Amino acid sequence: xxxxxxxxxxxxxxxxxxxxxxxxxxxxxxxxxxxxxxxxxxxxxxxxxxxxxxxxxxxxxxxxxxxxxxxxxxxxxxxxxxxxxxxxxxxxxxxxxxxxxxxxxxxxxxxxxxxxxxxxxxxxxxxxxxxxxxxxxxxxxxxxxxxxxxxxxxxxxxxxxxxxxxxxxxxxxxxxxxxxxxxxxxxxxxxxxxxxxxxxx
Length: 201
Prior knowledge:
This protein is mainly α and 201 residues long. 75% of the residues lie in helices and 0% in strands.
């Protein structure tokens, strides 16, 4: 994780106490399974979204404006690249079957850490779409016989709003998952109150 991202995340939960997760082994396995299911749904939704972006922008490749064609080509490349990265780094591996509570907790913690890092990378991942987005909107504005900038300006505002909202949402998710990571670390190492640990079964 980049140092500045780690510093930002640290600032979010600095001063917050770690709330121990008081769960039975079965509850922990259920929690981990629920998390995996939510991430898989998110990944499916993101794959569909990237595919739709690529399909929608494909029409721009066949237009007469060079700026618009280049912009749409960059957006398509970003969407396809994002799908590859999501499949490579965001996919949830199969949970170990019939594992002990300690193994399940360690596995769940690793997945939380991976998804936390992905959420912290959203500003950079979404930012890769900006060059293509700017060129595409410029191409739309310049493509008219009389340059018309209302639509590009409105779309720029929408993009900036969504970008800021997603970045904030990613920071909040990362902070939430970090607190759970800290709690799992406490119960797997026996450092929470009373030295309690998860049973092995």
